Amino acid sequence: MRSIEDYIKDSYYYITLNFKELLPGAILYFFLGMLSGGSGLFLEKLANNYEFNLSMSIILIITAIVVVAFFIVSFIIQGYLVRVMKTTVEGDGLAPKWNNIFDMFKKGLLYFVGSILLFIVFIFIPAVIFGVGILTFFIAAPIGVIFLILGFVLFFILIVIYGFYKSLADVNYSLNGFFGFFDFKRIFSMMSLKYVVLVILLGIIGVVISSIFSFPRIIVSFLLMKYQLISIVVDSLLYGIQMFVSFYLSVFYIRGIALYYRDRL
């Protein structure tokens, strides 16, 4: 089995050697970032400069277009990332092709649904305990507080477990379909201290690089606070660049996890 350093190096070489093949996803992320980054400020400008009825109609139309476009593109990109995980486990060092868009959309949609259901499974028990605590609090405050604390602590513990479980579950989904998310016995058996360290290191690398590209947005937003239109354009462009980079960071992360998954088979 490879070392953690090997997983990180392989992931790095993967995105550098496949930079052009991965470029469509980065470009889609770029435009997605521009759309998301500028829409909020643009809608705010509309609300401040038109009559209420007209602005509300425009806002609703633009919001609907933005939301639909956001989800469609997001599902397609996620479907491609699912392919990256699958081909990695299969031993392919080349990035998958951008073909069969509908298949990518379908896999991305199923990924979205499965992720939500998996999250609900993990938080269900602490949510119930927390709810009991709220109801009990009005009858017997001390007991209610105990339930609330218990629910909060359990929620925190399960969220941490969920974070580590989810990464391997994603890879399992790419290979075994929708119910691969819920193969608890198999996925938990793959976890180890080495895996925990790998996830943390991959996460830290991603956060540090992402922060470097997000910092200019904060500075520019402050400097251009009085110039709303310019601020919209610049903020959208900078957020698009940040999203462009984040796509490669996503590939970097899932490649490392998929390589670990492959070694545990």
Helix and strand arrangement:
Blueprint: H1 4-17, H2 19-49, H3 52-89, H4 101-137, H5 141-176, H6 184-190, H7 193-223, H8 228-264
Helix pairs in contact: 1-8, 2-3, 2-8, 3-4, 3-5, 3-8, 4-5, 5-6, 5-8, 7-8
Low-confidence stretches: 50-54
- Taking all residues together, what is the mean pLDDT? 87
Overall 3D form: globular
Count of extended strands: 0
The overall number of domains is 1
Count of separate DSSP helical elements = 8
Q: What sequence of helices (H) and strands (E) makes up the elements?
A: HHHHHHHH
Report the biggest beta sheet as strand number plus sense, adding barrel if it closes. none
Helix content: over 70%
Cα end-to-end separation: 11 Å
> What fraction of residues sit in β-strands?
under 5%
Radius of gyration: 22 Å
Sheet/helix structural class: mainly alpha
Could you explain how this protein is built, in words?
- This protein is mostly helical.
- The protein is built from eight helices and no strands.
- The radius of gyration is 22 Å and the shape is globular.
